[in-house]
Amino acid sequence: MANNERQTILIEFSREKLINAIVFFLRKTKFCGKIKLFKLLYFLDFLHFKQTAKSVTGLRYYAWEMGPVPRDLFFELNNPGEDLAKCVYIPKETPANGLFNMKPRCNFDKKYFTRREIRLMEQLAYVFKDAKANDMSDVSHLPNMPWDKTIKTKGEKAEIDYFLALDDQKDSLSSKEVKERIEEMQEVKSLFEK
């Protein structure tokens, strides 16, 4: 298999994972518009990184005024790719009630996820099932959390570093452990690129 084919398979797998995470949260929570979805994905990615040194979706988040935003997904929702549009109904305009509710068009496929990832998604869906995006801002904007630290040190619109998710809690890897895991992943990846 050629290097480009391997990269395409990895990109497609990552894309399927992102789309299925979106479908999962749309099916398992209420009032799930763009902002709530962004917060759920952010919590999923940063909690998973804290425990494993890897994000679930591969999204990059930015510190916007209203909270952490996966910028690429934000812009894609205005003009969704065929694969996303096939699995998610995205309204073109915000309805009069102000709730920009997306709807799943396909079923969630768990084959793309580890048990840990599914457990985290289930926990987040349970905790935030009935929450509205504004209610979740209290959590995503907590002092000394990644969004807050980024706003204070780099300013608005800056990328939020996943390393800011690390802390001294029992379930968190240390910065050193994360760096070692990332180096190991890069070494393994380089073996397959030859």
Characterization of this structure:
With 194 residues, the chain is mainly α. The protein has one domain (3-193). It has 8 helices and 4 strands, in the order H-H-E-E-H-H-E-E-H-H-H-H. The protein has a two-stranded antiparallel sheet with strand order 1-2. It has a two-stranded antiparallel sheet with strand order 3-4. A hairpin with a 2-residue loop joins strand 1 (61-64) and strand 2. Helix 1 packs parallel to helix 5, helix 2 (34-52) packs across helix 5 (115-128) and helix 2 (34-52) packs parallel to helix 6 (133-140). The chain is globular and about 45 Å long.
> Total strand count, please?
4
Structural class designation: mainly alpha
What is the alpha-carbon Rg in Å? 17 Å
Global morphology: globular
Brief write-up:
This protein is mainly alpha-helical. The chain contains eight helices and four strands; from the N terminus they run H-H-E-E-H-H-E-E-H-H-H-H.
Please describe the structure with a list of short key phrases separated by commas or semicolons:
194 residues, mainly alpha, two-stranded antiparallel sheet, 8 helices, 4 strands, 6% strand, globular, disordered N terminus
Spell out the blueprint of helices and strands.
Blueprint: H1 3-28, H2 34-52, E1 61-64, E2 67-70, H3 71-76, H4 82-87, E3 88-89, E4 103-104, H5 115-128, H6 133-140, H7 146-153, H8 175-193
Helix pairs in contact: 1-5, 2-5, 2-6
